[in-house]
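Hi V.,

You were right to ask for the full record rather than a summary. Here it is.
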Amino acid sequence: MAKRRNPHAPSHDASRCLDALRRILPAIAARAPALDVDGAFPAEDVAALGEAGLLAAPLPPEHGGAGLGTDPAALAEALRLVGRASLPLGRLYEGHVNALRLVLRHGDAAQAAAAAADARDGAFFGVWNTDVPGEILGLEPRAGGIRLQGRKILCSGAGRVDRALVTARARPGDLPQMVLVPLPPGERADLARWTAQGMRASATGAVDFTGLDLPATALIGPAGAYEAQPDFSAGAWRFAAVQAGGIEALAEALRDHLRRTERGGDPYQAARLGEVATAAAGARLWVEAAAVRAEAGAEDSVAFVNLARLAVERAALEALTLVQRSIGLTAFLRPHPAERLSRDLATYLRQPGPDRALASAAAHVLAAPGAFGDLWAATGAGR
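Predicted structure:
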């Protein structure tokens, strides 16, 4: 009998990209400790992703990519692997993937082709949506184009991203309009206020767009497309995938520590390692199931992804506690790998709206018909 192919396995082209990614991950992980300084950016790592074909890989084959962006199994693995090697790089790469996805989904044919050509040439993309509290990034129509006025904050890759997909509004209360902005390196960025304890190598900061004139072709999709559901909420599985990689890196740090100190035979240490392994595996399984459901456009994808992101957060918090208890004070002292990994993971977990996500998922569960045990049965994840 011929062996049946797993329909959720990565495609041939995506598998080649994953093989290339695995080859460069050890060098990325080795560079990560030196990049743990304020305002750092993993430029060498981004270049390595480009050389391995990972910057163009999210594009569909017709645009010269490997289709990674719409292959849930492959993309979940890629994001998890990058996150395992470097959470800041994982955060940046997830933004690159998201930006290309949004342009290809909502842009016209010419805009999609231009973005694809840029990615194939090594351009690095990002998505910046956070406004200064009480302000908006203003969009003023002008002859033949637009002018931007204002700033964005919490921009990962500020001053280093080549193409930024930002949201702007003509007036407060308007639906957000996506704008694709080409940015010369180092201009308009201010990293001074990013003083977080972790994710220091993500070059996160504010970017001032005031007075920037752009052609009308910079407008991507209609107003409101950025927040279109289910993609807007269901896409949260991608940052959860990066976080799952961070949990695996933390588990690896604990295992290495127990091997090196020859304390793995202690039953209490063994129990903690087993619990960390359980948390890491659970996070991975949640992410993989959420990826398939979200990319299939399942009707309940938002609810399921909301549960998945919170399950990954819980697994990460549990792993942080167990690793720190197991290693002890050394886990808080540089240069132990667990010290940096713990800071990066704890910082990256602070994604917006966790309580709202949980309440939304609970509302879906409450209203869903049928037996509770069959709630998530009708999914492409297991069939």
